[in-house]
## 1
Amino acid sequence: MLEDFKKFAMRGNVVDLAVGVIIGAAFGGIVQSLVGDVFMPLVGAVTGGLDFSNYFIPLSSKVTASTLAEAKKQGAVLAWGNFLTLAINFLIVAWVLFFVVRFMNRLQPEEVKAAPAPSREEILLAEIRDLLRQRP
């Protein structure tokens, strides 16, 4: 049983997947930093420092706080601003990843596609052509 597991774990697909997950996690940190430290401050500067993350609707009369963190401690709130902020972050991350993948695809050489095998008719026509060329 241990030998079977070793064969399974060492197959190319499993190892490739593990490497992809590890690199993806590391790359995710880079992209999150790019979004949080570069793009979102620019968005904040363009919108005049507008920050949606503290916008919420209290769902209970007990909620009197002015910040989302304090309001969540007091009762149920609908944190629509936080959702909007995360949705904007997602769009920016997706946009950055689109351009990274596009750039990486341009770096890879294009695969040369093999010509499809000739059909039966093409083979027969080539044989007829060759026979006609051999005639005096």
Note: Helices lie at 2-9, 12-46, 68-74, 80-107, 120-134.
## 2
Amino acid sequence: MPGTVFKKIELVGTSPNSLSEAIANAVAKASESVRGMSWFDVVQQSGSIADGKVHEYQVTIRVGFRVE
């Protein structure tokens, strides 16, 4: 049967430094158990504040991976 099938999962990555690092952290952790990841979409960006300063960046992503 020709064609490729993909599945999407939703992840939330965090970082004390940046949104980019939060994305990288989520992808790196998922790669420990998910094979065939191909792409991601950013769904939401958010963060937390403590003592009037940015405390943590949070990003929700959808990751697509090939179904074997």
Note: The longest strand covers residues 37-50.
## 3
Amino acid sequence: MVHSGNMTGTVPEPVSVPESESRRRELASFLRSRRERISPDRVGLPPGRRRRTPGLRREEVAQLAAVGVTWYTWLEQARDIQVSGQVADAIARALMLDRVERRHLFTLAGATDPHPYLDCPGMSSATRLMVDQLEPLPTAVVNSRYDIIAYNRTYGRLVGDLDELAPEDRNIMWLAFTDPVWRERMLDREENIRLMAAKFRVSMAEHLAEPAWKELLKRLQQASPDFREMWQRHEVLQLDSHIKRYLNPDVGLLAFDFTHLWLGPQQGPRLTMYTPADAATRDRLDQLLALIQAERVSQVEQVPVSV
């Protein structure tokens, strides 16, 4: 006679999973699925080299949403962390969720949607195309933390060469306060950095508990005596309108008016376009773009052709 291993004949009870943990797991799976369906070019990012998984990398979503890479990784690992409405909104935009998907994200995150009737296409390929097509006008997409998400060639060469910088250093606050090249070539620097610090304080009020914001604040305080001094003033400002001037190493003095086009609610990502404040700047912008194009042609011609 063959006996079963369960002598009592009882069936083990299933292990119950707390509802909060189930929600975190479902949220993590949902975020991964939406991240993997978006190609880099749809959000204005270069394809890069080898990608082990389809779609965006975690660090790319974190950059687009202006959150920390470690924090976003924990979110996709279903760790027990809090998600504010502002952060969920930023992630929804980065992942280009439609209205139904957005509502699902907020439900799983247990957060209140600050803009419940908003469709959020995020940093689309159409926006990326517009940034490029506005050349020679320097144009960039910048989030509320001053991270430079996308930019055209003339914007990338206004002061130095943004392409040569590490992605984490492509932040206007960081460059203006700490980079020696920007210190030399950003004219009216004292006034500009004072205004930036004041606007940054207003924006940070909505992100006080978020790791990426706290990390940038800590980094600036450690690296810049100017920032420490201005931060202590507690000045606040939302908008400013003044001429921005740069001393470009290739074509000389450039003076600009500028326009912000918000890609969502104010204080979120914005498209910033610089327009010449005088005829000399317009001519020099054309010269700068011509120099950049000539450099690109020269680089292509120098690439060896394999036989």
Note: Residues 279-302 form the longest helix (24 residues).
## 4
Amino acid sequence: MSFAALVTIAFWCAVIPAVLFCWNLALFRRPPRPATHLPSVSVLIPARDEEMNIAAALDGALSAQGIDIEVVVLDDGSTDRTPQIVAGYAARDSRVRLEHGPALPDGWAGKAHAAHVLSGRARHSLFCFVDADVRLTPGAVARMTTLLIRRKAALVSGFPQQETVTILEWLLLPLIQFLLLGFLPIVGLRHTRLPGFGAGCGQFLLVRRDAYETSGGYAAIRSTMHDGLTLPTLLRGHGFATDIADLTGLAFCRMYRSSAATWSGLMKNATEGLAAPGRILPFTFLLVAGQVLPWMLLITGLLDLSLLTGRTGGQVVAACVASLLPRIIAIFRFRQSVVSAVVHPVAIVLLLCLQWCALIRKLRGVRVTWKERAFRVG
């Protein structure tokens, strides 16, 4: 294939996601200011060995303003001080309840089972599933509840602001917003109920009890490790509307505590997302062609300036700018790392390596361990 043909491919594969990202950015907003007279919410937190996070999670949930809540924490077989910490909060605040989870049945993923048990012990008509490493600000629950009501949705999901410290954290986690906004038309999510537009973040899922029970809830997706994708998709498959919102500044999450944990944590659910057998090849092509190839062509052209003459040179530069534009915007909009944006092509290569590793491990039947539980990848 000629240099000019590669340039054309790189140009369009970089420009189209950049344009979609900017278009989606106008639709992907923070939830509205809270309305009055909101329905009560059960904040449901699965917790397994979360003594480092659970106090901050409870403080954040209990800070909720403008809405009546209960906070139910399921101790899912913790071996640390998680239940004792929660019990201390429950003794001081009647809104907090500590529940103990039964043994994990065969065929269930740990979080899915914990969330399923919690849904059966919640008292209110709205379930707000929140991960134990998420810290909510006082307005988060009320604003998301207002969004759910105004959108007439059965489920709304929020994307917390990610805190990144180690190398793989700040390389890979900021790609969440890039992939969401660069490759999913939010117009389709918002104006249809097609399951293919199902999207969300498992760190914060607010769902109506009636829709949850009608669709089967977590019992219908019991083996999932990617509930941020599978629960909205499930509800949409039953004819319910779902929506998403930006929780930057309203919720914070330190998802992993090391590069090794980041790699393992992202790999465990990869084959339910980008690394699904039907998705990985087209996404590999799109990401390599639009996010890596422009820079390879630029380097090649700088070594032989004759390749960058005329329209071809302009397309190479435009492709490089388009590939970085979403990441530069994300620095300000989502408070992401400047360094992560600058090394964007490297992050894409690492992401694809992770996806292919996850798929290969799944095809080989390799089991991985997460929180001392073994399961098959994806």
Note: The longest strand covers residues 242-253.
